[in-house]
Design brief:
The chain is mainly alpha-helical. It is built from six helices and no strands. The two termini are 31 Å apart. 19% of the residues are buried.
Length: 185
Amino acid sequence: MSKPNEPAQAALDSANLSRIRNAQAEAAAQNEVNNTAKNKLRGTYAQTQAQGLHNDAAKLALELVAGGDEAIDAFCEKVRKAGIYVGYLGKVLSPRQFELFGMAGVGPTPEDERAKLEGRAAGFRLDSEPGSKETDNPYEIGSLKGQAWLAAFRDARSERDHVLSMPPPAPEGGEQPKGDDGDEA
């Protein structure tokens, strides 16, 4: 639970996903032997984990988004099949386990709500990422969807800016952060 004047966990997680995506892109663009890029990515993972992000789930989500609908559909099918196989092995899944993605009993998302979700995701992108500007609104600005996208984008951008302006969390145990060369920073 967030304290007053602190962002909600969803805001932290959304901004941290952008941080990881950016650090992954930088690390991938660097020569494989470049330890600075690798260390920056490790540092980003440490920071995002300290702020409550489940890094393994974040990595999976980034891979799925990069793979598009086909990758997401394949993953959903894999999870669905795993549920069936667990049943074959004698374990009955609970309704909560079946609702893994929060989609049970939910129909298609109305278009204006989908536009809100897309606008919020765009608002949390880092400025250097594609789709990170108000002008990237894919909907007609005067339409209901365009207005929903823009309002969600602006709200998310405000939350993102707040999260990015926060100092990194202190390491547990009062340790001093180490620089790339192993010396204390």
